[in-house]
Amino acid sequence: MSSVSSVNSLLSSTTSSSSGIDVSSILATVAGATTAGIDVSGAVDAALYADRAEERVWQTQQATLTSQASALTAIQTATASLSSDFESLNSLVGPLASRSVTSSEPSAITASAAAGTVSGNHTITVTNLATTASWYSDQASSATATLPQSSFTLTVVSGSSTTINIGQGGVNTLNDVASAINGASLGVTASIVTDANGARLSIVSNSVGSANNFTITSSPTTGTSWSTPDFSTGQTLGADSFTITQSGVTTTINTTDGESLSDLASNINSQGLGVTASVVSDSGGSHLSIVSTDGTTPFTISEPAFGFTQAAQGVNANLTVDGVPVSSASNTVTGAIPGVTINLAGTTPTGIPATLSVAANTTTIGNAITQFVSDYNSAIKLVNSQYTFDGTSGAQGVLASDPTIRSLQQSLLSVLNYVHAPATGVTTTPTLASLGITAGTDGTLSIDTDTLGSALVNNASDVQDFFIGSSLNGFASSVQSALSSFTNPATGAFSVDLQSINSTNNDLTDHINDFESVYIANQKTLLTAMYSQAESALQALPTQMKQIQAELGNNSGSSN
């Protein structure tokens, strides 16, 4: 019923006996509400909702496209992982070529092998390890006790020499000497060793082998007096020798192990060398003091502030590998067995060579095969889910009608039928089933670990040949080839599909934006103006009704 008709209907029903007209009822009838007036904003929104019917269809299409893109991306990711698995398997240096090495004497020898190393057994006898060169000094009372002035020279095998001057340039104690040596970058490390008798300097080459040997020579000291570092109470001497030269006569003084400073002083004094030796005690302990007897005639002593003893020479490791003698500058031996790195930790028992066995790394290979099965199942499950009916809606997945997904499903299932024909001979693993890998009714794979384990232990080369073939043309290559038409980043079906979905989605977004900015915006302006005008008219209606009421009242009075 139109607004005019509603008003006429109400007016025609009014009699002269009426006390008045219900203006609110008239406004409610016109506005379609229980109160007078029009909600302009609400009315415009209601009208535009109807106008947006086509836009809502586009938005529904976009929601479907978004779901398709999400599902397709998940399948793309799963398929790419599967393809990556087979790329790794289809390699002469990949997990199928991994090797493990076991040793019959692991406490003495361990080893590792590069991928593809020829399997086999090797015998090794280790005569000696490569060692570092080392020297140590005579003892001093402490690492901080002041040393008499002297010098010594450290020479490495290359011939480079460095002289350390004690009593000059701030080098006065054992600590100072160690710092001076370490700061000179000589290929050795100096440290202080302390024990119950005092402190001594230890110098060790940084690397093993004969090429890292070094020597220490003492520089003679000339003067009218000389003394040793302090010795702690009760400390004795070791076996050593030094010379004293005065007035052109040189005498060698020998010390014996366990000899005291007093014994040494007595020995020197008994030989009439023109010098006098004595033991002097101070706060740091006791030291030997030698002075020219007449106080003016100089003498030369070959022993510096402390002497050095060679503890060990740097030597190369010596071993025999499969009967061939090998000398190695380090305890990590390469080149003796192609592809194998031998690590030496000790010598082998006399007359009993160790055995190194190089074989396929069944753990690494098994893990790689298990990984491909897991990734295959992830991919096939995602694909199969697109063809599963929803019990409530009766609908399938959002990609059920996508030919790419159907083609992928067929490809994934067809590769399982691969039968390997070796280039020569007969293989024990011609199919996946011979590896213990079988497919269920839903296409997913399962592994019989016992069967796979047996194949890896007993026929590892056949397993490798099944996947790699004679020239990268085995099962792994066939799967890669089947998947490449889907996974290629530029031309693969996944990329093409996603580009098409994104393009359609973008076009719909453009349609919606254009529809909103042109048609809906204009409609909103027109409807707002129309409903606003109607609202103004309704707001003026009470005044008009009062005028009508007054006229009706006058007419009623005249008829009486």
Structure, described:
It is a single chain. By secondary structure, this protein is an alpha+beta fold. It has 3 domains: 61-95 and 362-496, no CATH class; 99-130 and 316-360, no CATH class; 134-312, no CATH class. Helix content is 40%, strand content 24%. It has helices at residues 3-12, 23-31, 40-51, 53-89, 174-183, 261-269, 362-385, 403-414, 449-458, 460-468, 475-487, 493-559, and strands spanning 99-103, 109-113, 120-128, 134-137, 150-156, 161-166, 188-195, 198-205, 214-218, 221-223, 225-227, 240-246, 249-255, 275-282, 285-292, 299-301, 308-312, 317-321, 324-328, 332-337, 340-344, 354-360, 437-439, 445-447. The strands form 7 sheets. Strands 1-22-3-18-19 form a 5-stranded antiparallel beta sheet, with no helix packed on it. A 4-stranded antiparallel beta sheet has the order 7-8-4-17, with helices on one face. A hairpin with a 2-residue loop joins strand 20 and strand 21. Helix 3 (40-51) packs across helix 12 (493-559), helix 4 (53-89) packs antiparallel against helix 7 and helix 9 crosses helix 10. The radius of gyration is 51 Å and the shape is elongated. The relative contact order is 0.15.
